[in-house]
Queue: 2 jobs
Job 1
Amino acid sequence: MTNHHSAKSPAIDVIHALIKTSHYIQREFDAQLTNHDMPFQLSGPRLRVLLAVSEEGEIRMSELASKLGVKARTVTDFVDALEKDQLLVRLPDPKDRRATLIQLTEMAQVQIQKVHCLQEEAAEALLTNLSEEQRNELIELLGNLANYQNVPCSFEE
Amino acid sequence: MTNHHSAKSPAIDVIHALIKTSHYIQREFDAQLTNHDMPFQLSGPRLRVLLAVSEEGEIRMSELASKLGVKARTVTDFVDALEKDQLLVRLPDPKDRRATLIQLTEMAQVQIQKVHCLQEEAAEALLTNLSEEQRNELIELLGNLANYQNVPCSFEE
DNA sequence: TATTGTTATACTCTATAACTATA
DNA sequence: TATAGTTATAGAGTATAACAATA
């Protein structure tokens, strides 16, 4: 590779570059979501909830909390709001009368699909400067960076 | 096709890897800052304010707002809180009696220095798996990516 | 007794709008 | 009239603590 950077690269600079880039990307994604003609304002965190439910098909609120890395109380609020917008529904868990199961509505699934398309477009636009090989390199480097397998994926700040 | 990454690397996967990694890092940094024996809870945003002031030495609130990318009202709150914690001071701008200049206190400078040390440690820990060369590669790739001037940001459908 | 989810409360970060003092 | 900052208000995202129903 060309080595005009190799003079010095303290860890802190690498991390700052990473954070800065990520902020930029998230701003772009956010603008994307809020400026398009979506029927609902699907903020990063709200979208994250929907995606987590989508992955499981049906999930308990307590499980959802730990999957998202937030507290149960926080999930209650998200579910309240998303239920009001008819993006998901609460169902009693037949196996445990204390528990509540969450499912997406049809509409939520359509919305998620739309968001996914927008994100693909945005992602392509952001990566025009990187070749296929460079993209793979980037993914590999990020994968090596640390053990963060347990960390939930998210799109917000 | 020889290695397991080169099969396919859709843009969206690269972006997700980036965001996920960045979240992980920020959580680590945050834990670092809140768990260490810092006299003040220097959250990410609060720290960002201090660093912005630090860079300029002395800065108007309005300038600070645009430097941070937030509204003037938001800066008022930050400055209120940080002034109460004696991390910065408001001074009248002699050149314009409407304006207010912000300066760091001695204590803030000490705190920033401490935070910087902690972050360097944390950054090193996060990057143990990457060689010097890989770090440079990573910075370079991120630099290409964030070269957003060239990206025609037309995300229309 | 322990767990699930909710009520009650609060904090941080951010915004818009209306106002004041100055320019 | 326009700009700098503040007061007033609001909303999203998150937390802890106390509690009810159930296990």
Note: Residues 1-7, 149-157 of chain B have pLDDT under 50 and may be disordered.
Job 2
Amino acid sequence: MLDIQILRNDLAGVAARLATRGFVLDTTKFEQLEGERKVIQTRTQELQAKRNSASKQIGIAKSKGEDVSAIMAEVANLGDELKQAEVQLGEVQIALQTMLEVLPNMPNESVPVGKSEADNVEVRKVGSVPKFDFAVKDHVSLGEGLGGLDFETAAKISGARFSLLKGGLARLHRALAQFMLDTHIDQHGYTETYVPYIVNSASMRGTGQLPKFEQDLFQVSFGGTSNKAAMVNVYADKFLGDGLVANDANIKVDVENWYLIPTAEVPVTNMVRDEIVPLEKLPMKFVAHTPCFRSEAGSAGRDTRGMIRQHQFDKVELVQMVHPDESYVALEQLLGHAETILQKLGLHYRVVKLCTGDIGFSAAMTYDIEVWLPAQNTYREISSCSNFEAFQARRMQARFRNAQGKPELLHTLNGSGLAVGRTLVAVLENYQQADGSVVIPEVLRPYMGGLEKLAG
RNA sequence: GGAGAGGUGGCAGAGUGGUCGAAUGUACCUGACUCGAAAUCAGGCGUGCGGUACUCCCGCACCGAGGGUUCGAAUCCCUCCCUCUCCGCCA
């Protein structure tokens, strides 16, 4: 969420910066709502002050045994007026909040301006494109040849966009995750975490998946029919008053739901939601290995072959909560931590800085790491490392106590370190041999019982 | 699933309709005493929002969450969430 103060003070500036990422800010609507808010809030608070002082006087008078009918008469008509003002205030505040919650973050000044993926800037290439003196196979053919990759059975069990691993491939998948975790814990100073895979809507709201991207998520029902929260816990009730119902067309109602995490970023980052952490606890660095669940609603027909784009995949996620002054240094470090994994695995990759038109909703700056896939003859995203500045922290009220002792929003970052499924794909394709076998990278062999090669 | 107890400021813990944003203790900060420290004494010490006003002023809101009753709610009523204890079931 953006700081409403910045919108008040420099609306045109915000609009200009959001425009670089292709977002049109409705400044007229904001100014109108903000104007209304100011009038209504001032009036409401005046009425509340009046009620408070009158009530206090009644209390004092009664304790002295004096007659209170005169003061009572004075506030007799206050009730209705106040209630009406409070309802109006609630409505305008919800409208403002609803507008704010769907505004994307402002890109950092140094993010290259561009419209799409095509305008992203390559930062560096590490390693070189591997040469093969035979016709390369893709990971699907390799995996099926090795007898460990079975999409048909996965489809029978679940449906499209699921995969099933067996034997050496399943173990290689596990080895990759273990190797990544161990590296980040032992060499990069991250604290290992095990977190819930089902989260509430407040957590999704905190990191920015809600309210705008609900269609990308899997929602979880409770006990088969209604989930417990659908028993309607409507936070807007206070403002809606008696006359309005929850599904009133103009008012967004927040019903408490459960969702499967689309990334460990959600549960891990939300650890600090509604917290004020001591200054000396920063930076906080956490790593988690979790499955991730995505509906892929908007990508029908894309990457349908293989395990590149699945409803369920594993990812090792790096998350940091840092002092605002440190977040860009931390981003470079976090990126380096992710790159280390690829380097140790001996995989060729490049780092790309996303342009304003391609960065995600919550991010102020993002680097993607793209690994070379020989069968596709191209680079594919295997990690995305972002600095969210205070965007998520403001939604979460995640703060630290600064040197002056005052609560201040901290900065959050995260990055894949790495996507396990795609790393498996990269290892299979890059380490394939002419006979269809796959050499196991040396760093993984300790996790594979010393095995050097997967062969059918 | 059954029965019971409870959710108040960093922590502990009072407060069952009225000058309560909230006693007291403790932790923490400042000052005094001291060569210094401890002890002691004095003072300070929640968060968010608004008023063109970050550290000065004023107001509003917040005692798990959301509703309700009332001139007035931490306190009474309703719903939900969470925690703890015992029993049952279960990996």
Note: The longest strand of chain A covers residues 312-322.
